[in-house]
Amino acid sequence: MLWNIIYIGGDYLKIKWKLLLICIAIPLMVGGIAGFISRNSMSAFEALNKPPLSPPGWVFPVAWTILYILMGIASYLILTSDAPQKRINKAMKLYVLQLFFNFLWTFWFFNLELYLFAFIWLVALWLLILITILSFSRISKPAAYLMVPYLLWVTFAGYLNLGIALLN
């Protein structure tokens, strides 16, 4: 069927819907669990002094949902590529590691209010995302491109996190 075929990067790919949905669900679940764990910290967050350009609170869940979906699609493209399995495995280990760092940042920042430590952790996360993008780019350029908005958002989050660390 036509709706089961997608054109990406010069190739026609048959969509494996179950795998695609699992790949999207994993980062969404990680983000959902992190949000659930930190939900009681949001009132304290609202009371913090924030740097200029801080968006309203509703922007964060919207942005993260979009980013998690893009990350899931990127991981799907890596898993379904024709690259050597060793290269795919390395890329996916990096992907899982950065997702783990992403999850823990929420805990450090919101639950423990360790703002400076969370910023340092975010720098490590940023580096892991960059390395993941580079690894993905050797397998699938579209997958790497789908991770770029995530890197940009984490860059912005670093600005906000450092600002909060310095102002509070």
Automatic annotation (TrEMBL):
Location comes to: Membrane
Q: What is a single Pfam family found in this protein's UniProt entry?
A: TspO_MBR
Keyword terms: Membrane, Transmembrane, Transmembrane helix
Q: Which InterPro entries match?
A: TspO/MBR-related_sf, TspO_MBR
Q: Which family does it belong to?
A: Belongs to the TspO/BZRP family.
Q: What is this protein called?
A: Tryptophan-rich sensory protein
Q: What topology in the membrane does the UniProt record assign?
A: Multi-pass membrane protein
Carries keyword Transmembrane? yes
Please provide the Gene Ontology terms (biological process) for this protein: tetrapyrrole metabolic process
Bilayer-crossing regions: 19-38, 58-79, 91-110, 116-136, 143-167
Give a GO cellular-component term: membrane
